[in-house]
Amino acid sequence: MGTVFDILTIAGNFPDGAETMLIDTRLTDEPEASSRVFRVYTNVPPHYHGTCDEYLFVVAGRALFSIGEAAPAEVRPGQLVFFKKGVVHAIRPIEGEPLVFLSVDTPRRDPRDIIFVNPADGTPDTFVETRKLY
Fold first, then answer.
1. pLDDT digits over 82-94, tens only?
2. What is the spatial distance between Cα 82 and Cα 125, in angstroms, rounded to a whole number?
3. How many helices and strands, by DSSP H and E, does the chain display?
């Protein structure tokens, strides 16, 4: 079984503002992997995920992306960012067009799997709001 997703249409349907750091739309949610499209609305402080590796394809926008101890790197459309579970990362959007990623998490990432380095920076509830497809 399979389907085709229109990533650009999904990206274009995100609202202009959010009460959370991200809004995402889950495309698939299988035990072996999950995929989603998400828009970043504000700086995302250093955090990590305890259960999965993450592949992030930049659909739109630009950001300074920090992974582990490396200096932040600018990411832009067409680039793929990868990091293993437990690796600290952070995102700082660069003003301009909305920052949107296509994400594939292996294995599936539970939406509540977010651990902030500084717990005062956020919770799963302030991190992401999930919206239904279309």
1. 999 999 999 999 9
2. 24
3. 2, 11
Residue 24: how many other CB atoms lie within 10 Å: 22
Distance CA 104, CA 126 (A): 21
Compute the residue count for the chain: 134
Note the Cα 50 to chain centre separation in Å: 15
Q: Is the peptide bond prior to 107 cis by the omega test (within 30 degrees of 0)?
A: yes
What letter would DSSP give residue 71? P
Tens-digit pLDDT profile for residues 49-101:
999 999 999 999 999 999 999 999 999 999 999 999 999 999 999 999 999 99
Question: Is the dihedral angle over the CA atoms 119, 44, 65, 114 positive or is it negative?
Answer: positive
Question: Using CA atoms, how far apart are residues 45 and 4, in angstroms rounded to an integer?
Answer: 33
β-sheet with 44-48: strand ranges across: 73-75, 62-67, 89-94, 44-48, 115-116
* Neighbouring C-beta atoms of residue 86, cutoff 10 Å: 13
With a CB cutoff of 8 Å and minimum separation 6, the contacts of 58 are 75, 76, 77, 78, 79, 80, 81, 99, 100, 101
Amino acid sitting at position 121: D
Q: Which structure tokens are listed for 19?
A: 């009460």
